[in-house]
Each structure stands twice: as structure tokens, then as C-alpha cells.
Amino acid sequence: MIAMLLAGGQGSRLGVLTSKVAKPAVAFGGKYRIIDFPLSNCINSGIDTVGVLTQYQPLRLNTHIGIGIPWDLDRNIGGVSILPPYEKSKGTDWYTGTANAIYQNIDYIDSFNPEYVLILSGDHIYKMDYEVMLDFHKSNNADLTMAVMPVPIEEASRFGVVITDSNGRITEFEEKPPQPRSNLASMGIYIFTWKVLREALLATKDVPNCDFGKNVIPYIHGNGQPIYAYEFNGYWKDVGTLGSYWEANMELIDIIPVFNLYEEFWKIYTKTDSLPPQYIANTSRIERSILGEGCEIAGEVYNSVIGSGVTIEAGAVVRDSIIMQGTVIKAGADVTKSIIAENVKVGAGARLGVGEFAESQLDKKIYAFDLVTIGENSVIPDGVTVGKNVAISGVTDISDYTDGTLPSGGYIIKAGDK
């Protein structure tokens, strides 16, 4: 079995966090990136051939994966391959849907002549042994096995939903139904018998924006071929919204974390930079937090996830926040319930996350949480006050803030930033 990892999505629901970087490359848990989890699952499950399909803003992702050394995927045969869209003799095609992306890489898959192909999303946080799922697939003589998990029925309309018989065979499949009749949601993890998937991809190749949930799976189901549901009951998080991304990070710092990064038998691997040790000054106070390598902490940190190389100066206070690598929080700043992307500078005495929640004036669907979200390489000037549920991207100065304040629900997106 080989794995095909879909990592080309923008992740637009993460707002300014993904304006310059693909969602699978967004930092997570202080030292990781989101794509580390499915890649680590592959190598822990004994899968040594992985194709990573990239498209949107791929530079950070390509640099992070490299030749796959952290995941032991630097192999003479197999290993990890980056698969961007490419120019063909009849023109150039972007990947227009999940299934279309796989169709455009049929030659890559054929070169390994696999019996089975595992399709993965590059933007979920979980640990899963794909070998157990493959055994289930084989034991049922299935043409397709979908990983599913029970979700609250009120959330089921966000997912592809399956209805199964008593043996786990899928009798009906509905993609994001408005009135779901089941709470078994597809996790976007599929094992196909390759000859069946190949035939389905060729049959649906002319469908615009060809997608697994909308096109390929209904095609296979319509032919009466056996599709089974493999029920997964472990931790799985789709960090597709700012709220779920913040929650997943905060769950790492629980006294007994729901998702344990410290298990010896199922390690999460990542590319690690050569960084000096942390420096914790005698003026600092740190409670229930994760700190990355190379941090310099002289201020106070409570209930937060701090990435590598972050500087928090004396007198600064950080609470309930995610601070990504290379960010500097200057002296006297007060940061509450914020997601601050990489290489941001928060000015001295600035106050973030102040006041009451207000609806976003930028996008109510994306910014629907009482979080301050700051895009990478942004600058927040000294002494400003920033409310809740706000978005900031770019190098801002005091003239961008009315009376030195950005009220709750407001935003500042500088020219050139999306």
C-alpha cells in the first residue's frame, strides 16, 4: 500500500493564518506543523511510500518536508515525493478537486504498482494505525474502506455521512446533508483497491472539480461495489476553524492531555532546527504551558503554547494564547486569548484581547470566536489596545488605530495582505 496525502488546500477558514502559507504547514503544538501528524502515522504504520500533493503556497511545506529525513522517508525506493501540478503537452491543469489531484498523478501511482492506495488529508490532528484499517479492508474483500467516527448529530451536516448495515457495509453515503440521518462521519481517510480506484478516476475524469465525496465514492457505490466503514474511536480533530485550532492546541496543555504527544511507542516526528536551549529569566513566571526550543522568557506565561525562538520580555504577560515561532512580545505587553503567527512583533505596552466579544466586520463565518488573530510578519505598535474577535495582518502603525484602539470585531489588513 502507498499513501497519497492531499496537502494543497488553502484552509481559508483559518483567515490570516493561511494568507501566506498552506494550512498543512501551519505550526501546531509549539514545535510541529499540522502535516507532521499524517506523515508520522504513515511511518509508524509501516508505509514507506508517500506522495504529497501540494498546490497553494507550497514553499514552507516543501522546505519542511525536504527529502523526508525526519520521518525516515529518505529511501532509494519509495520514500516521500512532492507532487505539485505540472505542465503537460496539452496545457496546464491546476488540481481542481481531491479526486482530480489523484487522477493527475495516476502515472506516479502506477510506477509502484500498488495493490492498495491510502488517501489522506494533510490537515487533521490524530494518531491512527493504517495497518489495522488495511487488515479490516482485506478481511471484508472491500473495494473501498472509509474511516468514520461518531460525531454529535447536530454537527454531522459538516461531513460526509454514512449509513451502514450490521456488518459495517455502507448502504448509503451523503455528502454534507442538511438533515443527516446518521452520525457516522467520514474522516476523509480512504483505502481503495487500486484497480477499482483507477477505473473510477478514469470514468469521472471529465467531471468538473472532481471530488471523492461528491463524485468518486457515489460512482463506486452506484456500481454496487463493496464499500465498508472502519469505525475509529480515538482522538481526531479537524483544525479547520480558528476555534478548533485554538482548542486543539489548548488540549495539549491539560494536566492529563486528551491527545498525548509524549507516548514513546507512537512518536510524532518533525523537522527540527538547530536552536539553543530555552532561557528562563528569574523575572519570569510560567504555569501550564508548552515552550519550544530557543525561547527567551523574562515575562509571565499562563496556559499557553509557545513556539520555538519566541521572545517574551520582562513585564509582558501572555495568557491562553498560541504564539508561533520567532515572535517577539515586547516589555509590558498584555496578550490574552490570541493566535499570533510566525515572526510577529507585538509592541511594548500593547494590550490584546480586551473588552467584550463583537461580530466581525471582516467575515462572520471565519472570525466567530473571541480570539485575536494576527498573521505572520505583522507588527503591532507600542501601546495600542486591541479588542476581541479581531484580525490583523501586515506592518501596522499607530495611525491605523483610531485613538490607539482597534475595537472588538474590527480588522486591519494592510495592502498586499489577503
Which parts are unreliable, with pLDDT below 50 for 5 consecutive residues or more?
none
What's the story with the biggest beta sheet? 9 strands, mixed
* Number of DSSP E strands: 35
**Overall mean pLDDT score?**
90
Descriptive report:
The chain is an alpha/beta fold and 418 residues long. It is built from eight helices and 35 strands. Strands 1, 4, 5, 8, 10, 11, 12, 13 and 14 form a nine-stranded mixed sheet that branches. It is globular, with a radius of gyration of 22 Å. The model has no long low-confidence stretch (mean pLDDT 90).
Write out key terms for the chains shown:
418 residues; alpha/beta; 9-stranded mixed sheet; 35 strands
In short:
The protein is an alpha/beta fold. Helices cover 16% and strands 28% of the residues.
Architecture blueprint of SSEs:
Blueprint lengths: L1 E5 L20 E2 L3 E2 L2 H9 L4 E5 L5 H7 L13 E5 L3 E2 L2 E2 L5 H6 L2 H5 L5 E6 L2 E3 L3 H10 L4 E7 L9 E5 L5 E6 L8 E10 H10 L8 H11 L4 E5 L4 E3 L3 H10 L27 E2 L4 E3 L2 E2 L4 E2 L2 E3 L2 E2 L4 E2 L4 E3 L2 E2 L4 E2 L4 E3 L1 E3 L4 E2 L4 E2 L19 E3 L4 E2 L4 E2 L3 E4 L11 E2 L4 E3 L5
Parallel strand pairs: 1-4, 1-8, 4-5, 10-14, 16-19, 17-20, 18-21, 19-22, 20-23, 21-24, 22-25, 23-26, 24-27, 25-28, 26-29, 27-30, 28-31, 29-32, 30-33, 32-34, 33-35
Antiparallel strand pairs: 2-3, 6-7, 8-13, 9-15, 10-13, 11-12, 11-13
